[in-house]
C-alpha cells in the first residue's frame, strides 16, 4: 500500500509541470516533476535488479532544489542565461558529492525546502498587502512545502510518528498535486479579494 501511494504521488506530480508551463513558477513545477520522475525510476529499477548509486536520488533533489531557489530569487533568470551557467557550476559540484550519510543530504534538502517555503510566504504577504488579494494558489504551495519540511524534519529527528502520518501526508500532497493540475496561478477565482485593492 505504501509503495503504491508513493508511486501514485510521483506520477501525479509530473502533470502539474505541463499544466503550469509558461507560468511564473513553471520551473518550480518542472523541478518537482523531475524529482518525482527520478524517485519513480528509483522505485521501479530495483524490481529489475538494477540499482542506481546510493547518493544519486538525494543529490539530484538537492540539485533541483538549489536551482529552484536560484530561479525564485532571480525572477529575470530566463533573460540572464549567462548567470544561470555560472550558478550551475557549484550546484553540479554539490550534486556529485557522495555524501557519507543519507542524514547529511536530507539536512541540506530540508534547508532548501525551508528557503523555498519562505519565498512563497514572502510572495503571499506581498501580494496580500499590495493588491489586497489572498492567493489560494500560493497558500497551497506553502502547505505543500510545509508538508515536505515536516516529513523530513520528523525523519531527521527520529520522531515515531508512525505510518499513519506518512500515509496522510502522501495523500495530502497528492491532493495538492491534483489541485495544481486543475488550477494555474492566473485561474479565475484563485485569488480572494479581501479589500478594495490597489
What portion of residues is helical?
A: over 70%
Largest sheet: 2 strands, antiparallel
Rounded to the nearest angstrom, the distance between the terminal CA atoms is 49 Å
Number of strands: 2
Principal-axis shape equals globular
Order of helices and strands: HHHHHHEHHE
- Output the strand order for the largest sheet: 1-2
- SSE-based structural type: mainly alpha
Written description of the protein model:
This protein is mainly α and 198 residues long. It is 71% helix and 3% strand. It has helices spanning 2-12, 16-19, 26-44, 56-73, 81-96, 102-131, 136-157, 162-182; strands at 133-135, 191-193. A two-stranded antiparallel sheet has the order 1-2. The mean pLDDT is 79.
Features:
198 residues; 8 helices; mainly alpha; two-stranded antiparallel ribbon
Short description:
The chain contains 8 helices and 2 strands, in the order H-H-H-H-H-H-E-H-H-E. The chain has helices spanning 2-12, 16-19, 26-44, 56-73, 81-96, 102-131, 136-157, 162-182, and strands at residues 133-135, 191-193.
Amino acid at each position: 500500500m505504501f509503495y503504491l501511494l508513493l508511486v501514485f504521488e510521483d506520477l501525479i506530480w509530473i502533470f502539474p509541470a505541463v499544466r503550469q508551463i509558461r507560468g511564473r513558477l513553471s520551473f518550480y513545477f518542472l523541478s518537482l516533476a523531475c524529482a518525482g520522475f527520478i524517485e519513480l525510476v528509483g522505485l521501479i529499477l530495483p524490481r529489475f535488479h538494477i540499482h542506481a548509486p546510493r547518493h544519486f536520488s538525494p543529490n539530484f533533489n538537492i540539485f533541483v532544489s538549489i536551482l529552484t531557489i536560484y530561479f525564485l530569487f532571480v525572477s529575470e533568470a530566463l533573460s540572464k542565461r549567462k548567470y544561470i551557467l555560472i550558478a550551475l557550476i557549484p550546484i553540479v559540484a554539490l550534486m556529485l558529492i557522495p555524501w557519507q550519510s543519507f542524514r547529511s543530504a536530507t539536512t541540506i534538502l530540508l534547508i532548501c525546502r525551508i528557503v523555498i517555503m519562505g519565498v512563497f510566504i514572502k510572495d503571499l504577504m506581498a501580494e496580500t498587502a499590495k493588491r489586497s488579494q489572498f492567493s489560494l494558489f500560493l497558500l497551497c504551495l506553502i502547505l505543500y512545502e510545509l508538508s515536505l519540511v515536516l516529513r523530513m524534519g520528523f525523519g531527521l529527528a527520529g520522531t515515531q510518528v508512525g505510518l499513519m502520518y506518512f500515509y496522510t501526508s502522501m495523500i495530502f500532497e497528492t491532493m495538492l498535486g491534483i489541485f495544481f493540475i486543475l488550477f494555474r496561478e492566473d485561474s479565475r477565482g484563485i485569488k480572494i479579494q479581501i479589500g478594495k485593492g490597489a
